[in-house]
Amino acid sequence: MSQPTIESILQEKRLFQPPAEFSQKAHIKSLDEYQELYDKAKADPQKFWADLAEKELHWFQKWDTVLDWQPPFAKWFVGGKMNISYNCLDRHLTTWRRNKAALIWEGEPGDSRTLTYAQLHREVCQFANVLKQLGVKKGDRVGIYMPMIPEAAIAMLACARIGATHTVVFGGFSAEALRDRLIDGQAKLVVTADGGWRKDGIVPLKDQVDIALANNAVPTVENVLVVKRTAQQIQMEPDRDHWWHDLQQGVSADCPAEPMDSEDMLFILYTSGSTGKPKGVVHTTAGYNLYTHMTTKWIFDLQDTDVYWCTADVGWITGHSYIVYGPLSNGATTLMYEGAPRASNPGCFWDVIEKYGVNIFYTAPTAIRAFIKMGEHLPKARNLSSLRLLGTVGEPINPEAWMWYYRVIGGERCPIVDTWWQTETGGVMITPLPGATPTKPGSATRPFPGILADVVDLEGNTIGDNEGGYLVVKHPWPGMMRTVYGDPDRFRRTYWEHIAPQDGQYLYFAGDGARRDEDGYFWVMGRVDDVINVAGHRLGTMEVESALVSHPAVAEAAVVGKPDEVKGEDVFAFVTLEGSYDPSDQLAKELKEHVVKEIGAIARPGEIRFTDAMPKTRSGKIMRRLLRSLASGQEVAGDTSTLEDRSVLDKLRGGA
Ligand code: WT7
Prior knowledge:
- The chain is an alpha/beta fold.
- Helices cover 31% and strands 23% of the residues.
- The longest helix has 17 residues, at 117-133.
């Protein structure tokens, strides 16, 4: 683990007050009101969450115990029964929201669709019945490998409705990555589409599923359901594969939501860590529902007439929590967009905002930096005056990008919520509340009420203002992950043992470095483990290394992040070859494609540098710190005395 440094963090002094007009109408109207909530939650977290659970959610049966905490395993609302699909759909049907737009969908080729709460409910119930007819039962796992189309959300909600656990795999992952995840989750059924539109091309999702399942590689999968989206030629395996529209036809729309125990598993979502294969992060029902509900309501300050748009893919946690569950639980109108900015249509986001009068817009710093490059004229050519709130997520935002977002997109009238969180946390943890918290460009500001965040040293001691340390959370929260699927030991090791528990106080270690300033504002500085963040996507360097060494030409590989102006970081791979292979541009290209095949395009190395040897310590450990400096073109600073063979460094500097 490397020590976070504070050199790179700007001493940012600008402060932006929430506009008075915004605060007046906001759910949380002032810093005092935030502080009051924060203090109340800190004094009695269980009461704080229990009061909200009672007030904000529907329960079939109330819980007996608010929190059962056997560190590091938490159970929330034990004994309670509820269903998140009921909270997202059924309960709105008896209100005026029945015919309100629940989901507005804009397709990539320009087609569109709007589903009201009543319509979405109907589709979800029908699809839930389809799943039941195919033998899917409470507790079974269902793989979802989909483009950004309404059926992705419908499939998720249908699983939740009957108590099946969904495991959504991002449609940009390769067949190999999909197969690994389906095997680990023992999926019984896979929902996919013939293809998805992506930047003027088609992603052949069904073909990928066929490759993943070939030779009975995932023996648990009995059925594959296919949405017709792009209508290109695909193979349908008799008995195994079925068209969604065939099975949905004429199916009853009557499917009462299954009363689920609070702690029944809702979904598994795989994410990268510093070691081994991606981990199956487990989230359960009631705590996740409450946490995503409250964070969506207060952070995005949802009002009944808002059109809310989060640009993430449903294949990531941001899509789960802030396209599907959080907004729908609040009865909001959530927008889903299949497209992405690209050379042939760089202004498509601004078109969507103008077309639907989007009020709340939530995207990633990497996207903002790409927009800066594309030029102000694109957003300026559209009417963005409907916007009243902006958000960012996924990586630290540099103050320059923040300022551009504030000025050009927000017209200097929209607060920005820079939201820090992770797949593991279920929902946003550190963030401004837009009507309450003055913002500083580049800071995620303060913890959400009920979240006891701190910056500590390795012994768990709180460290002084403006010193770099490790970001931790001190008290369990309802949205926290419950375990690593099938590997509780890994859960304990990864998150709870880096920083030693003290007096029975367990600290959740996030893997990020941070500092806290004199106003109590958090500045997240990025990962301190071997995880890199490429365009807001999290990658384990070891995963990419494993992909590289699975190629016959590669003897050894070491992957580091190289700072990138737009993506934040890019994948930089040092590779030593097997004796019979020689370095060449052709081979570098082949290795990049090999990584794409093994993991997906998000992991494609930006650069491969061939080397005769890796810089290693005498005990044989690759010195990544040196490689990081080399990759970023910096002089190798610091101690190199532990290096076994110093001539390696000179060779690496010179390239192959
Ligand atoms: C990692 C989690 C959960 C949203 C999508 C990413 C980084 C996330 C911020 C932010 C600085 C951030 C952290 C974190 N990160 N948001 N606002 N400021 N860093 O989810 O794939 O689980 O990645 O993303 O490094 O640990 P994820």
